Structures are given as C-alpha cells and as structure tokens.
Amino acid sequence: MMTKQKTEYLNIRISPDIKALIKTSAESERRSISNFIECLVVEYSEKKQLNNIESRSEKK
Fold it and tell me: What b/e readout covers 24-56, taking b as 16+ CB neighbours within 10 angstroms?
C-alpha cells in the first residue's frame, strides 16, 4: 500500500452536485473528503490491478 505522506495538493473543478455527493458520502463513513477520495482511488487501482503506482511517480 502507498505511504501515508500528505505532501501533494490536487486542485480540481467539479459541479456543486458532485461536491455535495462526495461530502455526504464522506460524512456517512465518518471520513474527511480527502480521505474518502484517497480510499476511492486506492480501491479503484486495486480493482483494476494498477500496480507499482509509487514507483511510477518516483520516476518523474
């Protein structure tokens, strides 16, 4: 699993409806929005078998 260092920022533009859905979903799991999105990305990458994400980002 990826290291838990919070050193990067990601700014995205989304519709207010999607933001509200993310916020409601995060609250229902008692997570922050950031943590909720991180979990979604990790689950997705595991499902799609996207391995070695850390090593790819280190090569940049």
Answer: eebeeeeeeeeebbeeeeeeeeeeeeeeeeeee
Tell me the CA distances in angstroms from 12 to 19, 44, 48, one per residue in order.
11, 19, 23
Sign of CA dihedral 28, 19, 51, 58: negative
- Flag whether pLDDT at 2 surpasses 70: no
The string of pLDDT tens digits covering residues 7-39 is: 789 999 999 999 999 999 999 999 999 999 999
Calpha distance 19→15 (Å, rounded):
6
pTM of the model: 0.71
